[in-house]
């Protein structure tokens, strides 16, 4: 019965199919499964913070669960089967000695170096690669979330600006409408005031015109009465004066007619006397 030991050599990187057949201990590189899980979670639309938390928990879980622990030949080799094979050719004591020698050389020549170098370097490289991959994913998620949040904030800012512009337009329309209403109210108030003032002025003008008409009419009537009285008085005075004048003229004419008659008589007498005197003088002259 043959037994095969398939072990990784120093410096090689085992894949997911590398196993130690007799020990049934798989050495798996679970980074790709981890990446697939992370990609599926990202594609499923997990939030950034939840995804970062999940990746961190998975990194810790991968470090604690999939860490390959140091081992020895006793744990990896089917010692019972080898011992039985040795008993077919050697004594039990010799078989034990050979078995101990084989295990000693395996531990000294292989598993010591394997535990010291390969497992440590492999786990460090694997964890470093996993850490860098998760770091890249986290950076991508952070960048993507930052861009997404920036776009959201930009869209929100644009929406707020649009809402602000619409609100400003509505406020301006309300202000304009209010101004128009106020202007219309003021216009109607001034119109009503002007109408009332116009009516009041017309009433005052009518009152004034009536008063003026009454005053003028009363004044004209009084003037007419005064003129009538004055005319009547003047007419009476004129009649009296004319009658007096006529009587005076008649008296004067009578006196003049009497005086003229007297004068004529006197003149006639004086002419007669003068004629007599002249005749006497002529006679005297002739006598002389």
Explain this structure to me?
This protein has five helices and two strands; from the N terminus they run E-E-H-H-H-H-H. 83% of the residues lie in helices and 1% in strands. Strands 1-2 form a two-stranded antiparallel ribbon. It has helices at residues 31-43, 48-65, 73-76, 79-87, 92-287; strands at 19-20, 25-26. Helix 2 packs antiparallel against helix 5 and helix 4 runs antiparallel to helix 5 (92-287). The protein has 288 residues and is mainly α. The model is unreliable at 1-46 (pLDDT under 50).
The low-confidence parts are 1-46
Distance from first to last alpha carbon: 251 Å
Derived structural class: mainly alpha
Report the radius of gyration as a whole number of Å. Answer: 80 Å
Helix content: over 70%
How many beta-strand segments?
Answer: 2
> Which whole number gives the mean pLDDT?
72
Describe the biggest sheet?
2 strands, antiparallel
Helical element count?
5
Beta-strand share of residues: under 5%
Spatial ordering of strands, largest sheet: 1-2
Indicate the overall shape.
rod-shaped
Order of helices and strands: EEHHHHH
Keywords: Coiled coil, Membrane, Mitochondrion, Transmembrane, Transmembrane helix
Transmembrane segments: 234-252
Region (Disordered): 1-25
Subcellular location: Membrane; Mitochondrion
List the main descriptive attributes of the protein structure presented here:
288 residues, single chain, 5 helices, disordered N terminus, coiled coil, membrane, transmembrane helix
